[in-house]
Amino acid sequence: MPEHVVILYNRFINRNFISKLIQYMIIEEELDEITFNFNRFRMFKGLFRNFGLDLISNFMEQLDILIHEKTKEKQQNCHRVAAEIVAGIIRGSKYWTLEALEELWQKLIPLLNEICTNLNPETLSYWGLCFKFGMEDLDPRRMHHLIQFIRTLINDQTIVNTFLETSCWFLVLKLTNFEWRVPSIWCAINEHAKEMLDHPYKLVREYIANVLSV
């Protein structure tokens, strides 16, 4: 490993450095409009592309802290940073071995499941962009864990929380990144969507119509 790469590696393998960096990212955005930062996403993508699973444990620890932030004023910033990191992990795993991908998704799926069951209007857009940028230009065969996870978001929904229902359909639309390359997934989604056309809430029906128009 070249000397200049070793410097980066040693920094990002350091738990304290990562914690301080993430806290800075949270505070930094408080002074400006809170938006998904594409440059930071690309930084994380490069880190995980080059260093792989070596960085995962420390970042998973920080992600868990971010999504469980209790201070209301910080929650939006925390989810924005978490979404940038997760998008970078997903995109950065493009050339990982299949074994490394299996290990990654065993860790990421429980995290994503918790995130998607606790979405709110302030954080939904960040996770939509996370999936959009994270899945961009990837082989769907290597992303089958994530594709199946997103596809199952619309299963067994109730009308208790309309926002969560519409959020799930919103996230399902991010699978359009793969276009025609996941025909069986779209067939399953469309069949399920047709069964939901008589949903009692108009907004949910509109999202379902958007899915059927893909």
UniProtKB/TrEMBL annotation:
Name of this protein: Proteasome activator complex subunit 4-like HEAT repeat-like domain-containing protein
InterPro entries assigned: HEAT_PSME4, PSME4
Domain of life: Eukaryota
One GO molecular-function entry: proteasome binding
Pfam family of the protein (one): HEAT_PSME4
Transmembrane domains' residue ranges: none
Species this chain originates from: Rotaria sordida
One cellular component term from this protein's GO annotations in UniProt: cytosol
Domain annotation Proteasome activator complex subunit 4-like HEAT repeat-like: ranges: 10-166
A GO biological-process term: proteasomal ubiquitin-independent protein catabolic process
